Every structure is written in C-alpha cells, then in structure tokens.
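Researcher: Please generate the 3D structure of the following complex. Treat every line as part of one assembly.
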Amino acid sequence: GIQVEQSPPDLILQEGANSTLRCNFSDSVNNLQWFHQNPWGQLINLFYIPSGTKQNGRLSATTVATERYSLLYISSSQTTDSGVYFCAVESTGNQFYFGTGTSLTVIP
Amino acid sequence: DTGVSQNPRHKITKRGQNVTFRCDPISEHNRLYWYRQTLGQGPEFLTYFQNEAQLEKSRLLSDRFSAERPKGSFSTLEIQRTEQGDSAMYLCASSLAVIAGGEFFGPGTRLTVL
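Model: Done. Output below.
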C-alpha cells in the first residue's frame, strides 16, 4: 500500500500562533483528504484536496501532487484546534491510507 | 440528517467471546467503510461496501471478522473468538459515490478485550 508520512508528530502552540503540518506520500493518488480527530475521537473531514489550494476560514491546504506532498496551514490557532490531524490518501480500490497524524495542543 | 451513528459506543468483552457492532450511515449514502484505529495510529482500512455489495476487504480482516450490509443501509461487523489484539476503536464512515471527498465518520465503537 501507499506510505503516508506526517510531520511533525507532535506540536504545541500558544493560542494565536500559526503552524504548518506536512504530509508526504509514496505514490500517485486520486484523492487526498485532511481530517481532524477531536479529543473525543470524532473524525471531521477538513479538506478534499488531491491537488491545488483551498481555504476554509483559518485553515488552508495545498497539495503538490507531482511532488507527492500536501501542507495544512492553521492560522491564529485556538484551543479548539487541539486534536490529531490526519492526512489520508487513496489511489485505487476506494480505501484510504492514513498517516500516523500530527498531535496538536494549543495552550491559552 | 443525524450523521453516521455507531452502536454500542463502548464494548468490554472477555477473550474468546463474539462481539457485533452496528453502523447506521447517512441515509442516502451508498458507500460504507469500516476502519480500525489503535492507540497512537491512524485508522486502518478493513472493508468497503457499495450498496449491499462488499467490494474490498483488507488483509487485516482475518477469518474471525465478517461484515455485512444486507439491505444496503446499516452494516454490522462481527468479530468471533476475540483476542486481546482486537482491542481498538472501530470506525464506520459513509459517503455518496458521486461526491468525491464527502466521507463522514461515525463516533466509533471502542472495544476492549480482557
């Protein structure tokens, strides 16, 4: 299967700070998504972004498919942004391969 | 639309027992996925249905695991003769095939095998 690596594994931010999370993947993909898993375990779909750039409020994401990486930007972080951020990719077969995540803690 | 629901939310069982989990997808969604997540890891794909047809199964899905979606609506995941290594969060997700990137996850069932 496709290998998905995320960095950094852990991140602690002061409220209001900005951050960049990275996802590298080992093969061509048809689908790439970013998810946020909150402290209660619920996975929320943030972006569907197989290529290009998207923005949603304080979050934005960029995928450079030819170079096999994606970036998630969080600006003006808030304590509610805490949790684990996962990158997930799909090539064929309708199954997602998830990375091991970036655990984000935002302190007030 | 109440989202994807899963029951039970927590299950504690003794090794060797059988357990069954249920997933109710969003009503118009024709695709349904099961994933397993262990502590500190990302979710791992187990199986996928389109309507009632099980189209893909992971090698992680041993003979002790079986999943069904008999009428193309809710799905069940059964684990027979549970082992301690089966302890994990079992996640269900659903989507509408024509909408890329529209996967919605349920809250999960946390299984603890003693």
